[in-house]
TrEMBL record, chains A, B:
Gene Ontology MF: a single term: aspartate kinase activity
Species of origin: Streptomyces polyasparticus
Protein name: Aspartokinase
Pfam families per the UniProt record, alphabetical: AA_kinase, ACT_9
InterPro entries: AceGlu_kinase-like_sf, ACT-like_dom_sf, ACT_Aspartokinase, ACT_dom, AKii-LysC-BS, Asp/Glu/Uridylate_kinase, Asp_kin_monofn, Asp_kinase
Gene3D superfamilies: 3.30.70.260, Acetylglutamate kinase-like (3.40.1160.10)
Lineage: Bacteria, Bacillati, Actinomycetota, Actinomycetes, Kitasatosporales
UniProt domain ACT: residue ranges: 268-344, 350-423
Length: 423, 423
């Protein structure tokens, strides 16, 4: 008997009707002879409503208490889902993260899973039950306090349980049909990808694709758990993410897997930095100590006449203020001229393992952008990804141009439902 | 340093403003030098909303899952309350029933507390924290499943924690000023009782007074925990419930503590029961097996001519159908004539330890009813209580007449805020 772990996002269980629809889908998997563990997010906007309540009583809610508060969301959806399944004549039991054995570190609001001890789940499955598990939450190893895993945490819960239970597959149900070659809201002719490697998926996730989060894919790769991303509405096959394509999974052996874009970042430029050893280290130590995650870093060649250089980096817009404040503090010691802050940027990334063996990809990418009249401000590359920063206004046109240039356009306009993926 | 356990009902924490007000009150107790444990119910109508959701996905929600669902309510209110307290500059930690060590049996939806192991609470208090605890919930000893204590469960949580922590007092904050000599909505001249014995309070609770529930008072009496029922809105001293009045607690040494009434019951009469040994046992065995809690039982003297008698009992209206169905099944074996069901009744009870030594009380009670033109249908008595069943239409007039007759009327009309007390 195979074991399937399924995950349903908040939009799939937004109301009683959604919960009943999901219950039917779970029961179908059970009827097909699988053992089923279903991980569920909070219903619809519950999390945002709880955060709103928290802000009404405290401008800076304490992490421990915020986690206690937010975990009420999954408690509601998982209990309702278990009831709905029992109402269809099947046995189901719901488990909190703690009951399911999701052990984390003690970093509230963005805890990391450090162990999974699914003894109660196993026992429940062996009794013939469908096990429903609260996503997004765990219990800290040291303090036994309730923790949450941060945005996209339910996907990580599902993959971690799939690994601990040695599941055959982890199905991530969402409100889109799978992973696309580009955001279908921007590129009407974007195609659903039938199979994609962990590596390419990791790069897409890091580049702005929101269907799966980086952390979840990383976890799946480490434990070699195939992920099947699919729609909880349509029931069609979605996108498989794994090491190797299996069976009838179509692989087009395209050079490029997809085009991702991201408009959530801003660019900071430190102007007039003395070009001597240790200056860059000084700057990024200051940024790191402010606990800011930076993305791209570019240092220009210094002008020979002045011995000064500019250093630019990108970071989430939300952390812009913190970063510039941290840099102002070290202005005197570093001796740079000025700071520039720009939040009207977009990042466009081309991802595909095929580019390793196709040296023409970079040139074609830049030509496509140039033909579309899009100016490139920063460039950064990995072995299987090229990213550029452009003006935010240019992003849609740029993505479409690149998508067409690499032959990714679908022959027909695919009809897709697109939205957020819950958490 | 004294230890105070406080309990706040759902109406006290109905919204963000309510939570902030309660936070201030808790901090005040802390500032006055007490260690404080605050037990909190779910916000306002949360529980009803969750039950409504449950009914949308399943007509008969499974007990285990319903408990999982409902306990989300306190999780929300307690986390928000802890945040609000921290926002006032004091340290607070919230604890679920399970974390607070509230161990129950496995009867979902109406579990009983069988042990309290408050190790984590003690540690948190000793670190200087205010401890916030979810009322109404616990964890079952055997299955480790989440349980709820049923209606009024938060009061029981508070008293049980007060007992386990050897608290000096258990303060029950509600939306009324205390326990009154009658329901102030019916009797405008009802007086707040300053002190009442556990025994009298138990009888009032059993007779329809809703301020404190029977189970909570029973627990407090067993462990000798003084209860102080008071308003979370006014801050005035309320009603003390204990073995003996203390300090300046006013005791008027009245014969009668109060008049309670209850319109939630119905009356079943089994007509024409053969008057021979075992028939009554047969009837009440059938009712007990249907898990129906009955209240008063009256058997008339049998008519000599027929050898038949009538047996009447009262029970919650909600269980009327179940009871009559159970009795229909045994009609042939018992051989009674017919069943009568009447849900237009009211129960009026006079409570007071003083009646033990005042033989005239019963007569005065009946005279007061008679003068008010109220007919008595059933009578039942305990050592410190007399209850009668009347027509439901007569109840308000009857309560007022009895209240006046026993000199309980206040000299002035007291202004009171009255409503539900949460759970």
């Amino acid at each position: 008997m195979s074991l399937v772990v399924q995950k349903y996002g908040g939009s799939s269980v937004a109301d009683a009707e959604g919960i009943k629809r999901v219950a039917k889908r779970i029961v179908e998997a059970k009827r097909n002879g699988h053992q089923v563990v279903a991980v569920v997010s909070a219903m619809g906007d519950t999390t945002d409503e709880l955060i709103d309540l928290a802000e009404q009583v405290s401008p800076i809610p304490a992490g421990r208490e915020l986690d206690m508060l937010l975990t009420a969301g999954e408690r509601i959806s998982m209990a309702l889902l278990a009831m709905a399944i029992k109402n269809l004549g099947h046995e189901a039991q719901s488990f909190t993260g703690s009951q399911a054995g999701v052990i984390t570190d003690s970093v509230h609001n963005k805890a990391r899973i450090i162990d999974v001890t699914p003894g109660r789940l196993r026992a429940s499955l062996e009794e013939g039950n469908i096990a429903i598990v609260a996503g997004f939450q765990g219990v800290s190893q040291d303090s036994k306090d309730i923790t949450t895993l941060g945005r996209g945490g339910s996907d990580t819960t599902a993959v971690a349980l799939a690994a601990a239970l040695d599941a055959d597959v982890c199905e991530i149900y969402t409100d889109v049909d799978g992973v696309f070659t580009a955001d279908p809201r921007v590129v009407k002719k974007a195609k659903k990808i039938d199979w994609i490697s962990f590596e390419d998926m990791l790069e897409l996730a890091a580049s702005g694709s929101k269907v799966l989060l980086h952390r979840c894919v990383e976890y799946a790769r480490r434990y070699n758990i195939p992920i099947h991303v699919r729609s909880s509405f349509s029931g069609l096959p979605g996108t498989w993410v794994s090491n190797e394509p299996q069976g009838d999974q179509q692989v087009e052996h395209a050079i490029i897997s997809g085009v991702a874009h991201d408009v959530s970042e801003a660019k900071v430029t430190v102007v007039g930095v003395p070009d001597k050893p240790g200056e860059a280290a000084h700057i990024f130590r200051a940024v790191a100590e402010a606990e800011i995650n930076i993305d791209m870093i570019v240092q220009n060649v210094s002008a020979a006449s002045t011995g000064l250089t500019d250093i630019s980096f990108t970071l989430p817009k939300a952390e812009g203020k913190k970063a510039t404040a941290a840099l102002e503090k070290i202005k005197a010691t570093v001796g740079y001229d000025s700071l520039r802050y720009d939040d009207q940027i977009a990042k466009i990334s081309l991802v595909g393992a095929g580019m390793k063996t196709n040296p023409g990809v970079t040139a074609q990418f830049f030509e496509a952008l140039s033909d579309a009249g899009v100016n490139i401000e920063l460039i950064s590359t990995s072995e299987i990804r090229i990213s550029v920063v452009t003006r935010a206004d240019d992003v849609n046109e740029a993505v479409r141009a690149v998508h067409t240039s690499f032959g990714l356009d679908s022959d027909s306009d695919e009809a897709v439902v697109y939205g957020g993926t819950g958490r």
